[in-house]
Structure formats: structure tokens, C-alpha cells
Amino acid sequence: MEEFSVNNDDNNMSRSRSRMNAPRPQNSPSIIKWVIGILIAVVAVTVFLGYRYFNSAMQPMNPNSNQQIEVNVPIGAAPRQVGSILQDKKVVKSGSVFNYYAKSHNLNNFQAGYYVLKPSMTLNQVATRLQKGGAAQPILVNGPKILIREGEMIDQISDSIDKGGHFKKGEFKDLMKDQSFISSLAKKYPDLLGSAMKAKDVRYRLEGYLFPAVYPIQKDSSLKDLVTQMVGKEDAILKPYYSKLKSNNLTVQEALSIASLVEMEGSKEQDRAKIAGVFLNRIDKGETLGSDVSTRYAVKKSATQLLSQSDLKSTSPYNTRVNPGFPPGPVDNPGEGSVMAIVNADRGDGNMFFFAVTKKVPGSKYNVGDVLFYKDINSFNEAVSKYNPEGK
């Protein structure tokens, strides 16, 4: 009996130790909720960051950049490959997002060739440009070239040509007055130059028709070859829009005249269509356009020179402060963005006035450079006094 009692105590102690060493039961539902909460948070953060990245990638790489980048699209390149090339060249933020945008907007029929693109271009502008076909040879990296910047006048282009050392300034200006050469261009590009040939009182008949781009100067190229290339590029850019302009009751000369004003009046793409709308609304109402851009062209003053009272009263047909309707012709050579602003002019609000903010007013939501639009003169004058006092 005694031996049995000792063994029994040992068994009891062993069971007691087993209970002490056993793991404590956990609160399983709390752990599951905690894990699910973390997963939901991770998914939410991932979706949020993905949304921000997508929205950012839909915007231009650098809206304020004037850098020109040469891009080569190989023959047979798939849209995804083109997107990767554009991303590597820093033309777009994301090749994948560009590929998605191009496919979703049916803009993925890209043509092989060499292109000059800008980081400031929208995805639509890049995709549209790539559908039109590029140059057969490199544009920027090999050989001499001439750069025409958006908004340059023929007088400024002549200076660039002279500095290039291949052609003389005087030769170029003489060619801009050569009616026989211009008539030959009109026969070659009738849709482009038909209305320009009918215009009266123009300073240069080809003003506005030399498309801003980089042009290689090939061996044995003549000045006529170079200008023909510029005009041919303008025709290629405008070709998709001829029917739209006609349906809007606009000649090419009228459209480019307004586009040349828009080029210098609006630096932001979202403003340009509304600025074009204001100009077209004013023409419909029989009002003067009142653009200092055209007045400067009329009196041959640059954007940095002040306009005098006599300048503002100039009787030149280009002075839209005193002459209603369209100016005789373009006052510079606008880029595709300004041409598109005319094609897609925003006239819906019936705006008749606009100006750019030059003074930051404390508490105001407007920043310097913002363009404000108004329907009536009183609201316009009140806003000018507040945000652009020197423009009163």
C-alpha cells in the first residue's frame, strides 16, 4: 500500500507539470481580424499609390520643358516596345501607361522612323505624332541642322539660318518674297496654301507655314529644298484637320492667323482652346481681337519692348486693336498645340475677354501665370485691376 501511494503521488505531480507546461489558448478571432485589417490597409495603400502613379503618368513628363529629344521607332515595333523606348528616352513617365492610353484611344498604329519629341507633349500629342511617320535618317545627332522654335517669326528664322552658316539671311528673306517659288509650293500643297495665296496685305505669304521642328541639312541641299521641307511638314501636320476647319467655316489662313496669336498668348495647353474660343467669339460679334501680339508684329517690336500710344493706334492691317476681324495672316509660326486649339476651340461659355495674372493677391486661389476668362467688360476690368494692375 505504501509503495502504491508513492507512485500515485508521482503520477499526480507529472500531470500537474504537464498542465503547467501546456500552451495557453489564444484568441483566434482577434488574430484573424488583425490580419485582415492589415491586408485591407496594404491593399488600400497599394490602390492609392497605383492611382496616383497612373494619374501622374498620364501627364506630360515636364510641361515646361522645351528640350527636343530624338526617338527612333524601329520597323515592326509593337506598341509596348514603343512605350519602353519613350520611357527610356524620358519623353513619357511610363511606357506601360502610354501603351494603355494609345490602345484605349485607338492611337497605336505607330509608324517607323526618327522623330523629334518633347517632354512637354501630352500622351495624345506623342501618340498622334507617331502615327504620321518619321524621318528616314537621324535628325538631331548627325550632321548640320536648322531649328525652328514654336512662335518664331520669319525674321527670327532668318537669323537662325544665317547663324547656321550654310545659307545667308538675305537669301532666305529674298526666297520669302519669291512669288514664283511660292506659287510652285501652292501647286504642290493646294489644301495648305490655297487661302494664303488669296490673302491681301500680308508681310510674308509663308509666315505661319514653316512648321516648327528640327530640319537636317543634307549634303547638296538648297535653300529651296529646306523651305519645301518645312512647308511639307506643315501640310502633313494639318492634313487630318482640313475637313474639320472647313466644317467650322475657317480657311487655313484664318485658322493659322488665330493659332499664331494663341501661340504667344497662352503657354498652358488647357488655356489655349479657351483663348482660341475668345478670339472666335469676338470675331463673330464683330469686335476687334485686341491682341498685343499682332500689334507688336504690326509695328515690328519684340515682346520685351513697350508699346507706345502711337503703336496701339497704328493703321497697319495687322493691328487688331483697331481693325476688327482676322489679321491678314499669321504673325508667327505656331506649333501643333496651338493649331489644335483652333480645331477644338472652347467657345461654350461665351467668353469675350481674358488676361494673365501678374500679381499674387493674398488669399486668392489664382497664381501668377493663370489665365482668367470673362463674359462681360465690367467683370473683366475689375479683375484686371486686382490681378494685373499694370495692364489697366
Automatic annotation (TrEMBL):
InterPro entries: MLTG-like (IPR003770). The keyword Cell wall biogenesis/degradation applies. It holds the Pfam family YceG. Residues 7-21 have a biased composition (Low complexity). The chain crosses the membrane at residues 31-51. Its EC number is 4.2.2.29. Residues 1-26, 313-335 are annotated as: Disordered. One of its GO terms (cellular component) is plasma membrane. Gene3D superfamilies: Endolytic murein transglycosylase. The record marks 265 as: Important for catalytic activity. Keywords: Cell membrane, Cell wall biogenesis/degradation, Lyase, Membrane, Transmembrane, Transmembrane helix. One of its GO terms (biological process) is cell wall organization. Residues 313-322 have a biased composition (Polar residues). Functions as a peptidoglycan terminase that cleaves nascent peptidoglycan strands endolytically to terminate their elongation. HAMAP family: MltG. Belongs to the transglycosylase MltG family. This is Endolytic murein transglycosylase. It comes from Pediococcus argentinicus. The gene is mltG.
